[in-house]
Amino acid sequence: MRALYGAVRLAFQRRVTDCAGAGISCSGGGQAVQNPRAADQPPEISSSPAVNQVTTQMLQLHYFPGNASMAPHILLEELGVPFELKLVDRANNAHKSPEYLVLNPNGLIPVLVDGSGSAELVLYESAAICLHLADTHPQAQLAPPLGSSERAQFYKWLMWLTNTLQAALIVYFYPERWADEASAVAQVKAHAQSRVGGLLDQLEAQLAAHGQPWLLGERYTAVDPYALMLCRWTRGFERPARSLPRLSVYLQRMLARPAVVRAFEREGLAQPWV
Ligand SMILES: N[C@@H](CCC(=O)N[C@@H](CS)C(=O)NCC(=O)O)C(=O)O
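That is the input. Now the predicted structure with glutathione docked in place:
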């Protein structure tokens, strides 16, 4: 029975998925969406791919494959700590349900629930979750030392990714929120795609400027999975991130990390991943 659940779920996730793909997108609009866990739902995925647990882990990530939950998911895999993935049923608008709105009044994915402190922490905004995971696991060195100029650059890039690149991508995926007429919606989408193109050039220039493996330079930090997540969303663009020479090598380097592979596989994302 479990094998059947797995096959159905995988088939679903191959067909639909992330913000950039056909089917379910960040907008939730477009084609009708199937519910991967509609009938006889299997338990939530546990942190161990081998064992599906129903017990509550101290860290719970509310996610949807390929969505803005991907950067925190990769970081959780990098940390190697126990956590639980809770699939948000976008097909049934679960992210707009009263229960979910208690967790995130914006009705957006992701949410992290962290029960490791004295009081349970409920946190939304992907970048904030990434910062929290880096702060609470200093041994993993996912952020440069506090007060250093590298730390300042780390803040700059994380804010740029979430406020500038992600914001432009969100306009691309939700153009109907910015215009009514079909032609105007198409125009908004085209402008957003063109703006994202210029922003990808900035990422390319940053990699060219230091010639090092990761976005900040020598050191892999929390901004890297964030950049991967957003670059992946451009997969369907006329000029996707993978078409820029340095970004292409960088994305392949990211995809070679075991934690990244684990996250993509557990989300059931089909190849090509970028
Ligand atoms: N700034 C938010 C944006 C999150 C976001 O837009 N998530 C999308 C999925 S990629 C979503 O939940 N969309 C549903 C909607 O807009 O109704 C974050 O980074 O957490």
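Residues 182-210 form the longest helix (29 residues).
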